[in-house]
Specification:
heterodimer; A: alpha+beta; 6-stranded antiparallel β-sheet; 3-stranded antiparallel β-sheet; B: Ubiquitin-like (UB roll); Ubiquitin-like (UB roll); 4 domains; 16-stranded antiparallel beta barrel; 29 strands; flat
Chain lengths: ~200, ~600
């Protein structure tokens, strides 16, 4: 192998390594423009934790909080952000899921598979195009966390002993599920182009 | 040049692979928002035939329109989602109700089903209130209301008999008929440690109540009501009539408790009243007896149970002394400058023929451990009597109460110490003991309760008692407590003075889980002192609070150096911060049960 060939292979490897993170994040979040709203999808999406699934199969409601952050670069300063809440439930007779985006505005879809329920929730986390520049690139980060349905109990939370009991009596003792999805860079002008 | 071409080709390949366009073969078709059973078989087939086909937006849109036509009041749209492999998509027909139903306030999909039954697992029916049971059963036959279920779960958790004793989860299960569900509350007892640490004592029928104990049910009828342990002339005619009015009625725990409280009030807290039930002469009949026991004038005078953890002094656990016969075992490094471990046993009567007289005899044998700081300080201070390996004692005493608030006690303390230096040998530390003790009645004004107490202890060892140590130890103490609903304040003060040649266990120390909290007694004075002053103020709201401790321990002739600490408390836990300290001191974590 000549010196030039070796140098060429090194360049290929470096370029590939540099592009891989972009490729990975590009797969994690995909934008879809619907009118003046940007919707999101992701391949192999799974944010409902096993603990959440157990609660759902016990007929309970599980709520997730989402914060959609828009930034100019991958790890840049957040320019704007929007908060959403998705509430999931599981139909114990039909064995299908229902997801409701409770705020802002109510939007509910039922008879979903586990995968579709998560996709519907993600799809409902829209961003108005007006808040984004047409040509400037932007990155999207979606932070999520499962909300503790028992945390709102004022009676139980009132006493410190009650809090200890609540904390120590967590059957599984696991932290509530949380994570981040990321994607970019996107440009509105490119998304508007017909495919 | 060839290399450049190679690089370019590879780059093009990688870029294409990465930024590939959305593939177009349908790997799966789903309908969301409605049950596919609402569609005609023909339309369902048409939808399923798309599986494996190339995605055609126009064809998908036509099928969405057919769904809208077949099912009333819905809107439908076709959406694609990425498939499991490149070049594949999932086609989803999203169907939503166009009416108000789509914005239902109850987000739980099971709210469309009828409640068939409500069960509570893990609890006896008598362990929670009648009203709560009725409210649970009122859900039966109605549509499931998830918020109501959660509200009832919270009420069950907060029920006085279950609070801090059980954790409760709820579950919705399929009913025996289609579209019916069962609501199941599952109660699990908390681990023993948590119940002991956090569980509040539950007073039922005037005494301590253990969960699981059988109580009369609301289906039982009261056959008779009796009062035992007190002359009936001490009870008003009105209350006696009220008690008898229960006869023939269904058992009502709230009513039984209410009358117990009235009886307690009429007897002016001189008696401890509790009610007990027994089976009646027929099935589903019960006999209720209000048992009034006179509260002895002389309180229990034994060693207090100790269950503490001090970050720098370790665990102390010594329990459990009771009356009339007592037996205590454990290790205690909190109370004295020494750590003793062993057992004590004895007998105590709080009412010896008369409520004015009491007697106590206690025997103890302890092995003693010393901290290295204590050993070094004792070796450097020849004026202080040496350390010992074991301590054995016999302590007889008698008590006389002038009234229910004031008593005196006198006795002897025969103690033998196995001294270490200069060689193992026994020495006697016999002492005469005396106690004066006053405690006020509870003064109640509205929701506020006040009480205070004061006491003086003296112990004196003398040669004519056969003691090798000649000394006198005085200790004064006072305490004031204020409680108003969830707020409480406690101020306590202790003074101590020791003269002569006293053994180590008589010396005063501060800096444990009760005094100068946050300081370490072995840093302050590892051999204790002959003079002591201590002041403590604790303010709490519910189980949270803070304290300020002040105190000093010193020897005669030394200057007094007052030390302070601040701390926060959360139930049995506390974190103490010594103020203006230097050296190895810092925040100290403590537990005192």
């Amino acid at each position: 192998m000549t010196r030039q060939t070796r140098r060429g292979l090194w360049i290929v490897l470096l370029v590939t390594a540099a592009l891989l993170p972009y490729a990975a994040t590009g797969q994690s979040l995909k934008p879809r423009l619907d009118g003046e709203l940007l919707h999101w999808s992701a391949a192999n999406l799974r944010f409902l934790s096993s603990d959440a699934m157990q609660q759902l199969h016990d007929g309970a409601t599980v709520s997730y909080a989402f914060r959609v952050n828009v930034s100019a670069s991958r790890n840049g300063t957040v320019m704007s952000s929007i908060s959403y809440h998705c509430v999931f439930s599981y139909d114990i007779w039909e064995e299908k899921y229902k997801v409701s985006r409770t705020e802002p505005g109510v939007r509910a879809v039922s008879h979903l598979s586990e995968q579709s329920a998560q996709e519907q929730c993600l799809d409902s986390l829209t961003i108005p195009v007006a808040s984004l520049g047409t040509d400037s690139p932007f990155w999207i980060g979606i932070e999520y966390n499962m909300e503790d349905r028992k945390a709102t109990s004022s009676e139980e939370a009132r006493s410190i002993l009650g809090t200890f009991v609540e904390v120590f009596s967590q059957k599984k003792g696991k932290p509530l599920a949380a994570g981040t999805l990321q994607g970019g860079p996107f440009r509105i002008a490119e998304l508007r182009k017909p495919r | 040049m060839r290399t450049r071409m190679l690089v370019l080709l590879v780059l093009m390949f990688v870029t294409r692979a990465i930024f590939a366009q959305t593939p177009a073969t349908i790997e799966k078709v789903e309908i969301t928002g409605i049950s596919d059973q609402l569609l005609s078989a023909e339309l369902r087939d048409a939808v399923q035939k798309l599986n494996g086909q190339r995605y055609d937006a126009q064809a998908a849109e036509q099928l969405a329109n057919r769904i809208q036509t077949e099912v009333k009041d819905v809107v439908a749209a076709a959406r694609t989602q990425p498939g499991t492999q490149a070049g594949r998509v999932r086609l989803v027909f999203v169907v939503a109700r166009s009416g108000a139903d789509s914005e239902s306030s109850d987000t739980n999909v099971n709210s469309q089903y009828t409640v068939e039954s409500v069960e509570v697992k893990g609890l006896l029916r008598s362990q929670y209130s009648e009203a709560l049971y009725d409210d649970m059963q009122s859900m039966v036959g109605k549509m499931l209301d998830n918020k109501r279920v959660e509200e009832l779960r919270k009420r069950l958790v907060a029920d006085p008999l279950l609070k801090n004793q059980y954790m409760v989860d709820q579950k919705i299960e399929r009913g025996s008929q289609p579209e019916h569900v069962k609501v199941v509350f599952e109660a699990d007892k908390l681990p023993w440690v948590l119940r002991k640490m956090f569980g509040k004592k539950i007073s039922l029928s005037g005494g301590d109540f253990s969960i699981g104990k059988s109580q009369p049910g609301d289906m039982d009828t009261i056959e008779s009501v009796d009062v035992a342990g007190v002359r009936t002339t001490l009870i008003s005619e009105g209350l006696r009539q009220e008690l008898q009015k229960m006869v023939g009625k269904r058992f009502d725990k709230l009513e039984a408790d209410h009358l117990r409280d009235k009886l307690d009030a009429e007897l002016k807290s001189k008696y401890k009243v509790k009610w007990e039930s027994a089976k009646g002469s027929q099935e589903h009949f019960v006999k209720i007896t209000y048992d009034a026991k006179e509260i002895p004038w002389i309180p229990y005078r034994g060693r207090e149970d100790v269950a503490t953890y001090h970050q720098k002094q370790g665990i102390s656990l010594f329990c459990c002394e009771t009356t009339p016969f007592n037996f205590g075992v454990g290790t205690d490094g909190d109370t004295l400058i020494e750590r003793y471990k062993g057992f004590s046993a004895g007998f105590e009567s709080r009412s010896l023929g008369s409520r004015r007289f009491g007697a106590r005899l206690n025997l103890s044998t302890f092995g003693i451990e010393w901290k290295s700081q204590t050993l070094l300080a004792a070796a450097a201070n020849p004026a202080v009597p040496g350390v010992y390996r074991s301590r054995q004692g016999i302590d007889p005493s008698v008590a006389f109460a002038f009234n229910r608030n004031f008593y005196v006690a006198a006795g002897m303390g025969f103690t033998e110490l196995e001294m270490i230096e200069p060689s193992l040998h026994w020495q006697s530390a016999h002492a005469a003991t005396g106690t004066f003790n006053y405690h006020s009645n509870d003064v109640k004004r509205g929701n506020t309760t006040l009480n205070w107490a004061a006491g003086y202890d003296v112990r004196t060892g003398a040669k004519n008692l056969g003691s090798d140590f000649s000394y006198t130890r005085h200790q004064w103490g006072a305490e004031y407590q204020f409680k108003s609903e969830d707020n409480s304040a406690k101020v306590s003060m202790r003074l101590g003075r020791l003269t002569g040649n006293a053994p180590m266990f008589e010396r005063f120390s501060l800096g444990n889980t009760q005094s100068l909290r946050g300081w370490n007694k072995y840093d302050l004075d590892p051999i204790g002192g002959t003079r002591m002053v201590s002041w403590s103020t604790t303010l709490t709201h519910d189980d949270l609070g803070f304290y300020v401790d002040t105190g000093s321990v010193w020897d005669r002739g030394q200057s007094v150096k007052l030390r302070q600490s601040l701390g926060i408390v959360a139930g049995p836990f506390s974190l103490g911060f010594p103020l203006r300290c230097s050296g190895h001191c810092g925040p100290t974590f403590m537990i005192r049960l």
